[in-house]
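sry for the spam today, last one i promise. struct tokens for design, 256 residues
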């Protein structure tokens, strides 16, 4: 008997990870559920929808307009033009993380992920951050991998222990950190300063960029220092999560 071919295409999300329809989404918000993102039927608009979307935006939850086929494929049911994905973690306010660290007499160590879109890289970065005592991981609302079960698995559970702060954009978050006395350090292969040559001490925020495009120009403007990891081989660069682990080890060597 001929065996059926293995399906390797996209899988429909588990129903435990999303809710759909006006009332279920509103009830999820009322119950304090953390939403990772919301998909809305493109070109749809009415008073009830606009009111709910206004509430969602006020909470800093990313909203994406999509075609009906996208929503139909996810729910297979009457979705009323809305699907909300539940977050497996609870995001923490950045200002509370920083203030709390200072109040405990600790110098904050933070990691900002600028445009990291691969969930495995994001999870591995969180794993290194938690291992080396970082206070939080900062991610933007848009243009970043979501904190999914896959990201948590890649982090070996670190994302369940490490506070994650979701901000409107990384540039504004870095400006807040600098005003709070936290140095912002860009890890960039274009820097002339090698990692062992610096004398950076906490409090600091290590800024990491997308492997393809690096740290955006807007975010780079907010960085006080730029450092690179010296290499002697012919390979052009390291994986961003590997770079994060090396940098955090060197920067925290005096504490280990």
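last one done:
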């Amino acid at each position: 008997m001929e065996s059926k071919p293995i399906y390797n295409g996209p899988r429909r999300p588990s129903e435990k990870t999303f809710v759909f329809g006006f009332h279920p989404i509103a009830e999820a918000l009322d119950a304090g559920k953390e939403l990772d993102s919301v998909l809305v039927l493109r070109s749809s608009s009415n008073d009830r929808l606009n009111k709910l979307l206004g509430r969602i935006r006020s909470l800093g939850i990313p909203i994406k307009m999509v075609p009906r086929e996208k929503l139909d494929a996810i729910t297979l049911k009457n979705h009323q033009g809305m699907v909300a994905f539940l977050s497996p973690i609870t995001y923490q306010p950045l200002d509370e993380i920083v203030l709390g660290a200072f109040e405990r007499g600790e110098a904050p160590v933070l990691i900002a992920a600028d445009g990291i879109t691969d969930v495995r890289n994001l999870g591995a970065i969180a794993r290194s951050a938690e291992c080396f005592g970082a206070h939080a991981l900062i991610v933007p609302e848009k243009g970043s991998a979501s904190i999914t079960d896959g990201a948590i698995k890649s982090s070996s559970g670190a994302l369940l222990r490490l506070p994650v702060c979701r901000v409107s954009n990384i540039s504004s978050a870095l400006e807040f950190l600098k005003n709070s006395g936290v140095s912002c350090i860009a890890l960039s292969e274009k820097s002339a300063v090698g990692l062992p040559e610096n004398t950076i001490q906490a409090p600091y925020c290590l800024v990491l960029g997308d492997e393809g495009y690096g740290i955006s120009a807007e975010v780079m403007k907010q960085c006080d220092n730029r450092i690179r990891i010296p290499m002697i081989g012919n390979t052009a660069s390291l994986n961003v999560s590997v770079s994060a682990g090396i940098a955090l080890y060197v920067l925290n060597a005096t504490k280990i």
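The chain has two domains: 15-86, 94-255. ok im logging off now
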